[in-house]
Amino acid sequence: MAQLLLNPALTESFWAASLRIATPLIFGVLGALICERAGVLNLGIEGIFVVGAMCGWMAVWLGAGLWGGVLVAALAGGFFGLIHALLTVPLGLSQHVSGLGVTLFATSVSYFAYRTALPDVSSPPRIEPFRPLDVPVLSDLPFFGPVLFQQTALTWLALLMVVIVWYVLNRMPLGVAIKAVGDNPSSVDAQGLSVYGLRIGAIVAGSALMALGGAFLTMSAFDAFFFGMINGRGWICIALVIFASWKPGKALIGALLFGAFDALQVRLQTEVGALVPSQVFLMMPYILSIVALVVAARGADYPRALLQPWFKGQR
Q: Which residue, 212, 263, 219, 267, is CA-closest to 237?
C-alpha cells in the first residue's frame, strides 16, 4: 500500500494534476481569507462559485472572449458579495444566515438563467477553453516544466494572486487597515477611516476572487457549465482558511494539499478500484483534509472581530 501511495507522488503528472485541482480552491480560499481578515464570514462562497462558473461560461459562449468571461465572472461574484456586505456590515445581520441566503440565491439565479437562456438544450453547449501554456525552454525543464509551465493562464493568475494578496495584506497601508478592521474596528474608526467602507470593499473583492474559482471550472478545467459541478468546493475553502491561519502562503499550501489528496484518490481508484468501493476513495481527500485542519488549526491566530457586527458610535 505504501508503494501505491509513493509511486504517484514521485511523478510529474501527479503534481501537475494536483495543481490543476487546487487552482479553483486557491481563488476561493484567498477570497474567503480577505473577507474574514476584514471581520466578515462569507458563507455565500458556494453560490458565488456557481454564479462565477455560469456567468463566465455564458459570457464566452455569447462571444465575450475568454478574458471577457473572466471579467464577467468577477463582476458577478462582486455583485453577490455586495449583497452580503450590505446585509452584514451596515445592517449588522447574521453573517451565517446572510451567507447561506446568498448561496441559495446565487445558485438559484444561475440555474434559472441557464434554463431561461437554453430551455430546450439537453446538454450544455461547449466553448473553447483556456489551453495549457507552453513556455519555451521552461516547459522542457525536468519536473518543474510539466508541473508549472504547462498550466493554463488561470492557474498562473491564481498563483499571482497569492503573491498580490500577501503583498497587500503585509506590505501596504490598505492591508494593514483591512487586518485592523478585522481585529479592532473601533480603533480604525478612531483613526478616521471608514470601517464600513473597508469591510464592504474587502467582501466585494474577496467575492470576485471566489467567482474566478468557479470560472476556472467552466473555462479551463472543463468547457461547459453543468449542475452540481461545484461539488462543495466553496465549503472546502472555508475550512482551508482556518487551516491556513488566515495567511495567503499557508492558504496556497492547504489548497495544494487538498489537490494532492484528490489526485491521489483518482490514482488509487485506477490501481485498486476493483477491490475497494469507489466511495472510499471519494471520501479520502475530505477525511485527510479534516485531519490536517485539526492539526494545523490548533492555536490559530484568528481575527478578533470576526463575526462581530460593528456600528458607528458604539463603544
A: 212
